[in-house]
Structures are given as C-alpha cells and as structure tokens.
Amino acid sequence: MDQRQIFLRDVLTVLFKRKAFILVFIAVVFGVVLAGNYVWPPTYESVAKVRLIRGRTTSQPDPTVVHTEAGTLMMQLSREDVYSEIDLIYANDVLANVVDQLDLGSAMQRGTGPVQLTLRGIRELEYALRLKQRPDPRQRAIDALEEALEVKADDKKYVLEIRCRLGDAELARDVLVALLEAYRQKHVTVFDQPGSAAFFEEQVARVTRELAEAQQHLEAFRGEHQVVSLEAEKELLLSQYTEARKLLLQLTESQEAAQQAAAGKTDQALIATLSGKTENTVVTELQLRLLELLLERNRITENLGPKHPQVVAILNEIDRAADRLSEAIEATRATTQAKITDLQRRIEELNKLEGELEDLRRVVDTTADTLVYYTEKREEAIVADAMRDKQISSIRVVENPAVAVNPVSPRKLVNLLIALVVGVVGGIALAFFLEYLDHGLKTPEDVEYYLKVPPLASFFRAGRHQPLDMGEAQRLSTMIDAVQAGAPNQLIEVTSAVSGEQAGPVAAALAKARAENPEWRVLYIDFAPHRAEGAPPKGLTDLVAGQADLEETLGQDDDLYVLSRGNAECPGYLWESRGMQAVLSELRQRFDRIVLHTSPVRSSGDAINAARYADGVVVVVKADETRREVVNRALDVLRSAKGRILGAVLTDRKQTIPGMVYRRI
Question: Cα(first)–Cα(last) distance of the chain, in Å?
C-alpha cells in the first residue's frame, strides 16, 4: 500500500515519539567513537618531496629534446615520465632493499591504522580459506610497506610527494630515508646505458660518410644534366606550350573563316574572326587581305550588281586569297604541331629529372637530420656517462623526511564531529524506518487513509481509572448524527477488532453524552462479559429467553438506562430468534437512542450478529498498537454481515508533541 502524504506534524510526531531512541543511538555512536579514539593506536606520517630535474640520464630516442639558449641539451618530461618514476618507487626490489636494510620483517607486521588492519584481516581470511598462498615473512613485510606508502605526483611542477604512515614516528622517517636512497640507486641503474657514447660516436662517423656521399651524388647529377634551374626552365616550356596550343585554336578558327569566305558568306562573326590577330604574322596578313576583298565585294555588288565584270573579278580574287590563307594555315599548323610534340617531350624529361633530383635532395636532408640526432644523443650519452661515474641522478630531494610530532590518525575532534553527525542522521533515519515498519494507526489522517472510513473522534491517553474526555464524547455523538444525517441512527453498535481497544469506555461515554439531552431516553446495552455499572444481574439474554421482564433487567445511572448481557451466553441462533427481534423492537419503541457495546469482532460473533440490527457501527481502534490490516479485516467482516460502518474512533492517543509546539503547527 502506498504511503499517505507526510506533513510537518507527522514528522515532529515521529521525532518526539522516538526521541529516547534517537538520543540513545546518538549516545552509543558517540561513546563508541570516543572510546575508539583512546583505544585505537596512533599513526604517524613522515613526508618527503622529490623534484624530477629536466635532462635526466637517458639516451633513448625522445622527441621532447629541446635546446636551451645556452645550447645545453634539456628534456621536457611528459606526464608518462612522471608516473613512470612512481612505478620505480613502488618497484619490488626497491621496497625489498628498504625492508632488508631496516630489518622490517617484524616491525611491519604491527599495523596501526584502520585501513592496514582491515586489509590485513581480509588477507588473513583469504589465507584461511586458501584463496591465496601465504607469502613468506619478507614478502609480507614488502606488501605491508607498499600499503604504508603513498606517492602523489604534480606533473606540472615535476614534484613527487612521498608519504609513509606507520605506528612509529621514527620508523616512518627512517623508512623514507632508506626509500629515497634505494630509489636514487634504482633510478641510476634503470637509465644507465654503459658504452652508449661509443655507440653514438660510431653512428656519427657513419652518418657523416653517408651524408658526404649523398651530397656528391647530388652535385654529380646536376653537372651531368646541366641542371641550373629546373623550375624556371619548366615554367618557360609550359608558357611556350600554352602559346602553341592557343595558335592551333586560332588556326582552326581562321580555316573555318576562309572556307566561309570562299562560299560567299559574309557576316559579323566572319568579319570578327578575319580582323583578329593571330600568333603568326603571315596568317594575320592573309586574313586582313581576305577581309579587304570581302568588304570591296560587298561595296561594288551594291552599286553595280552581282553580274558586273568587276564583281566577278573580285570574286575570283577572293577565291585565290582564301586558297593562299588555307595553305598558310596548313603550313603553320604542321610547324606548330611539331613544336608542341617537342615541348611535351622536353617537359616529360624535366619532370623525370625533377623527381630524381628531389630524391637525391631528400636523401641528403634525411641523412643530415640523422646526423644531428646522433650528434645530440652522443652529447647526452657523454653527460650520462659522466653522471654515472659521479653517481649523480636527475632527482633532487627538496624536502627531507622528518619525525612527526603529532599523529595523523585517529583525528579525535574530526571523528567526534563525524560521530555526532552520524548519530543524529542515523538515529533519525532509524526512527523513521521503525515508524515505516509500524503499521499501527496513529492519527485521524491514518484512519481516513488506510481504513477508508471517517475518523469520528480520537481520545488522548488519560490517567488510570480516569473517565474519557466527555468533550470528545460529545464530538463523537455529533459526528455520528452528521454521518447518519437523513438515515436512522437510533441503535448504534460500538465494537472493536480485538480486545483491549477500550470499546466499552467509548460506548459508555457516548451513551452518557447522548443522555445529556433531556428530551431523549437513552439506553446503554453492555454486551461484554462483565456487567455494566448500575445494571441488574439479569440482562438481554434473560429477556429473550422469557426469564425476566424489562423492568427487572433495566438499571439506571443518573439519566442513563443500563442493560447488561445477562448471565448466559448469547449463541448465534438466539440472535436470529423471534424473541430477539421482539425485544429489540420493544427497546426501540421505549428509548430514543440506544448504544450497544459488543465484544471484539475476532473474539466472538456478537458484534457480527448485532451489526444486522444496528443502524450503524462504530469501530474503536487503539492508537499505535492495533495493526491496520487487522482492523481492515474486521471491517470487511462487518460489511459482509450487512453492517453499516459509520467510522472509527482512536483511543489511547499519546500527545508526543509539546502543546506549545503543537499549537503552532
């Protein structure tokens, strides 16, 4: 079932209701941490800082080699270089050197920090379960030393911060001192390459010879092919090739113009073609001569007519001029085509020469770069050999380890603050979790949400042997009249799901509240095994059995008439008898209001049988005790018996929130 909406009053109710539990939980957590601060052994930390110097002893190829202004070879360390130094510190042989030097085989077994003890406990469990093989004491000391160390890198400043945490402050300092020396020796050993200077010297000599040979081949090639400037020559040939191709295009256009002139055509395109200038002067002069004849023909034809002898003579002259132009075009085309062929051949030769020359240049450049590289490496190797001979490494200790004065753990004040926070948060969380697990009905809102019936009233817990609040009883009577508006409410049954819900006191209080009306005759029938106050020994069962009359069974408590169950049990068949119907009918005639209290639904069948005769049923629930599932089952049983459920009444409610706070929310 989903939870109903939570309000501030509900939250405060939980907090005040379980305040004792929350306070005890806080006190327990705080007390455990307080005791742990004094029981847990202290852990001391020693710190050392190491700076990685650029230009470390290495002769391996590295593209990060740069030149300083002074010409010294330096190296830019990458992030990978920095973290590789951390791997050297954690190297097994480095840690083994420290363990052997300080004889840490037994000292490292005394772990003091919570992390070390926890990890050791896990390892011991793995050894006990045979998940891992138990190492020898020396290896165990190495593993414990690795756990006690912590290395952080600042790859921007090239600084390594090494921390060692142990239970002995002096031992932590001694471990770092020995570790720094072992790390320095390891660093020199790793980057030491004896004989590398001689190797690079040989490579420099070899590459120098190869560079001289490559330069000789390049010069010989240039002299053999008389190469001065391939680019300029190639550019000139391309220019000539372009002009020749342009001339061929012009010749083609001139040839078409000559054919059109011979055919007698004269238009603007033809005139534009013949008047254009070509790259060949002979063709250009012949085009202009043909153009003059065409213009002369047009002029004479307009004046003399097409059959005049002068016109005919000019036409013959035009034919001869067109033939001469065609002949000149063909001759020029042949010459130009041959020139283009020769140019193409020469360009191809130049391209081949250019490729061979570029290959020779590339060999020279590559060899020169290789020579520079091996020269630099030779210088680095010389420096590395000198540093090796002097036992100099490229690491510098910028902060020496010192003996710690105060322990780093346990941090007592921080632990107490954390314990206080955890206690408060944990206590509140557990309080709400317990409240979530509690399925009791606590407020009228719970009644309405979980039982789906109206909350008619709620009685707060009173002192022992004290009557219920009559003001709330009056409210209960009013709520019943409001719920039963327009329907008969003469006979009201008051029952509960289980015993101990205070259904009897609620029924008696309801009856007394109704009896305060002077116009009503009110009867209270107490069908519980005990006898109601003021009731005669004989009761309802005696009336039904005909063993007494009404006057003998009725008692009176002030203005309230009281009737008990009687001395005998009331079996189920008796409820269905005509005598029961007659008695109840007579009681309805004599009394204006009747309040019937029956035993709990789960204790006997009286509540179920009485529900058939009642105008409404009121179910009493003890707050914070009866589970809502139990009450719902009782309501379902009453509904199956055709009983009309008017609502529920909460009893024994606890005022957990102080009145001053409650009034403001």
Answer: 27
What's the Cα-to-Cα distance from 112 to each of 102, 103, 118, rounded to whole Å?
19, 18, 10
pLDDT tens figures, 296-310: 777 777 777 767 777
Count how many domains the chain has: 3
Token pair of 659 as six digits: 């009145």
Q: At what angle do helices 230-262 and 309-389 cross, to 10 degrees?
A: 160
Handedness of CA 186, 188, 193, 194 (dihedral sign): negative
At a CB cut-off of 8 Å and minimum separation 6, what does 8 contact?
A: 665
- The pLDDT-based confidence of 66 (bands split at 50, 70, 90) is very low
Q: Do the beta carbons of residue 397 and residue 180 sit within 8 Å?
A: yes
Say if residue 137 is preceded by a cis peptide, omega within 30 of 0: no
Q: Is 51 helix (H, G, I), strand (E, B) or coil?
A: strand
pLDDT tens by residue, 364-413: 899 899 989 888 888 877 766 666 665 556 678 888 898 888 888 888 88
Q: Are residues 69 and 151 in the same domain?
A: yes
Kindly state whether residue 216 falls inside one of the protein's structural domains.
Answer: no
Sequence length of the chain is: 665
Query: Whole-angstrom Cα distance, residue 445 to residue 347?
Result: 102
Whether 472 and 550 map to the same domain: the answer is yes
Element (H, E) at 45: strand 44-52
Range of the domain at 470: 444-662
At 405 the three-state DSSP class reads coil
Q: Of 130, 160, 191, which residue constitutes the final position of a domain?
A: 191
Do 527 and 606 contact (CB within 8 A), yes or no? yes
Residue 492 near residue 480, CB atoms below 8 Å: yes
What pLDDT is attached to residue 578?
Answer: 87
> What per-residue confidence (pLDDT) applies to 597?
92
